[in-house]
Amino acid sequence: MIHVVHHPDYVTAAPARSNYRWGKNGAIRDLLARMGDGVAWHAPDAIGRRWLEEVHDPDYVEQVLSAAVPRDKERRIGFPVTPVVAQRAQMVPGGTWLAANLALAHGFAANTAGGSHHALAETGAGYCVFNDLAVAAVRLVEEGTTPRVLIVDVDVHQGDGTAALTAGHPGIATYSIHAERNFPVRKARSTLDVPLADGIGDDAYLETLHDTLVPLLDGFRPTLILYQGGVDPFADDRLGRLALSEEGLIRRDRAVAGWAKARGVPVVSTVGGGYGDDVMAIAARHVRVITTLAEALA
Ligand SMILES: [Zn+2]
After folding, report:
1. In angstroms, what is the span from residue 132 Cα to ligand 1's centroid?
2. Is the pTM of this model over 0.85?
3. Which of 53, 181, 236, 248 could pair with 244 in a Cys bridge, judged by C-beta atoms 3.0 to 4.6 Å apart?
4. Does domain 2-297 have CATH number 3.40.800.20?
5. d(C-alpha 122, C-alpha 144), whole Å
């Protein structure tokens, strides 16, 4: 049984002037629903404003919650922040936080949205409004739910917002393995960054992942891994620059889950990037991340 966090608010119609492809979260839900009793569904509450303000500037939080984000910030985000988008932005961090609690109880749980790693203190960016990873990690540590959270970001783009928002927090470490020449142009500093050259394939990727992540796991000794499981390192991704195969993505997720399991560390996953015209194929890749992790951590 896989514990999955989902909320109807995750699935919204595309706002006007949006260049982000909406509908992915609904497709992920539908694919997981086909698993019937194999999935235990959980619905989150919207995260409290104070936890958003722990990592984001209160003025920016107010702009989002009142759907009054200035146009220049909306351009950085990639879509307008309507009241519906604002509601979703508050629900998704609640989902990541709830999924983390479920992972601590069961070994693994997944949020069907989230991974909004580009959101910064004073603005969203790159299709991200609030940084659910940073918000959830800070709340988990500050409330004493778990002492050490390692955010493992395997999205093809650097987790710049997450790194910036959690920098210096004693209970939180960040790891990002990404295509060096990809967005964002100006990188932040994670606890450990692993920039990759364009076009890297499965074997070189997995070797690098092993050689960099395993020492960090043994040094930081996390009590929870928060996994941003972006599928945009896939070879045919519209915004990726790497060349992982479908099998390579599975090997990636199985490897991380195996290292976590060997150390007794629970894993919570969010989705992340995945871009292209075939929404169902991308949703299927996201679902495969969830089922691969669940299987390896069972
Ligand atoms: Zn990405």
Report:
1. 15
2. yes
3. 248
4. yes
5. 26
